[in-house]
Amino acid sequence: MGIRMAEVYLRRLTRWQAEQQREAVANLYVATYRGAAGSEYRDRTGFLRRFEQDVRHDGFDMAVADSPGLVGCAYGHPLEPDGSWWAGFPVEVTPQTEELTASGRVFALSEIMVLPDQRRRGVATRLGALLLSRLSLDMVVAGLTEEATAAGVGELFRAWGWKELPLAGAGAQASGRTVWARGPVR
User: Fold this and answer.
1) Any idea what the Cα angle at residue 80 is, between residues 87 and 91, rounded to 5°?
2) 63, 94, 108, 112 — which has fewest CB within 10 A?
């Protein structure tokens, strides 16, 4: 006789709902990445600062997974046409990518996270599909930190058919940050 796992329900949140859920989302972030002991406050504070910035972007969108209680979420927004997002990542930006960014056709998947005990059950795949289902943009990108890479997010993107963008310059690898993309990466 097997153990029956609770059903996971997905839903979209409006910007207002996302702001109302910010504390629960921050708790999810800390539980998902479980940094070094004692760093939870710093990790949570940094996350809340980034989340607040992301929610303010035009076109912000968010999907959450409940079972009961928050077990995962994914959110993002279209990139600003000025291309400033790319400055934070050590990758080669092609002329085509610059053109797509300038025309507002690139969506940044800011975060996708699932509690460790809910992983490998298709929750992240379902969250990603729900979040991206309404997009009519040409490219989706995600910048990963070392923590996200260690949590297996890069492997998830690879399984989804995303491509890791080539690093620019010799010092880029030392940053520990990578960018993954789905769409016209030529």
Assistant:
1) 30
2) 94
